[in-house]
Amino acid sequence: MAGPSTGPSSARFLGLCVLCGLPAAGKSTLAQALSRGTAWDCALISYDDIILEETFMSPLVMPSWKWYRQQLLTYIEHFLVALKTGSSLSAPAERKNTVWQNFVRILKEQGFISSDTPGSEACHLQLKPKACSPLYVVLDDNFYYQSMRYEVYQLARKYSLGFCQLFVDSSLDSCLQRNRHRDRPVAEGTILLMAEKIEIPNPEKNFWEKNSIVVRSEGPAWEDNLKVNCLLRMALENPVKEFQDNAEEKEADRLVTAASVLHQTDQALRKIISETMRMAKDSVPTREMKALAQELSKLKSQLLEDLRYGNILDQMSLQRGTEVQDIVALFHQKKDGMILEYLAHQC
């Protein structure tokens, strides 16, 4: 299958492809299959290979997984800028060395960084991608919340890149079974919780998810999946266009929205915290309950503060008025991530 036409003077086709789904659903297998295609090059960014468990967990300190995800997203953006401009890959001034080193190692192993470039601590790394070839940066992670994928879409919009999503669908039983045979299995409780909370791409509701399809892991060989290849090609040839917001109208809408739902949201979040603490007694040690209650209360206060001053929409991919249930959903997302960290800390 031929890729988008390129020539010596043509702009390079660049795209971001998000692979999402439960752990052990088959995302990495699909990523490898995509890299064997001939229509475009692929830079595979596997979150599990870069943000290793020992990177963010220790007996004394357990920083937020979200912080490391944001760090990696920053590194990916620097990589995209280098690809767009033909410049060297510049290391961010503030970086987590372990994650940065893993990121550079992955790119070097795939041939995107010159082998004679100095070590991963260097501030400028020379790229050596195939000249003018179409390129997909494929992100392999669970991306089980819509907001996680929206952050990647924002990158595509910022740099006018192609954007698409492949949701790898596999039964929960299959995922659990395959996970048990992994070198680094995920805690089964984590997979079960993700299965309850995962948000499948919804093109009908979210315009930015229009280039999304569900791929069955038990289906035909990835290389022969015509729908996958057609989607990737279409996304490359139709990059996301940046749009300008009316700042004054947006600010006015924010203030009106915040005033109308603040009280209702406060009542709803109080109820959720109470229910969460009651359910947490069965899985969170007693010594951790007080700290969990404090973190949940702090999270509620922060969300209400953001709502009061109009910052809440920055965290949500909403195209219509913010409703109480939307903010409650955001609270649930952050709360579930917090619970996962507490449970992971006990493993």
From TrEMBL:
<keyword id="KW-0067">ATP-binding</keyword>
<dbReference type="GO" id="GO:0005524">
    <property type="term" value="F:ATP binding"/>
</dbReference>
<dbReference type="InterPro" id="IPR027417">
    <property type="entry name" value="P-loop_NTPase"/>
</dbReference>
<dbReference type="InterPro" id="IPR013641">
    <property type="entry name" value="KTI12/PSTK"/>
</dbReference>
<protein>
    <submittedName>
        <fullName>L-seryl-tRNA(Sec) kinase</fullName>
    </submittedName>
</protein>
<keyword id="KW-0418">Kinase</keyword>
<dbReference type="GO" id="GO:0000049">
    <property type="term" value="F:tRNA binding"/>
</dbReference>
<keyword id="KW-0547">Nucleotide-binding</keyword>
<dbReference type="InterPro" id="IPR052648">
    <property type="entry name" value="Ser-tRNA(Sec)_kinase"/>
</dbReference>
<dbReference type="Pfam" id="PF08433">
    <property type="entry name" value="KTI12"/>
</dbReference>
<keyword id="KW-0732">Signal</keyword>
<feature type="signal peptide">
    <location>
        <begin position="1"/>
        <end position="26"/>
    </location>
</feature>
<dbReference type="InterPro" id="IPR020028">
    <property type="entry name" value="L-seryl-tRNA_Sec_kinase_euk"/>
</dbReference>
<keyword id="KW-0808">Transferase</keyword>
<dbReference type="GO" id="GO:0016301">
    <property type="term" value="F:kinase activity"/>
</dbReference>
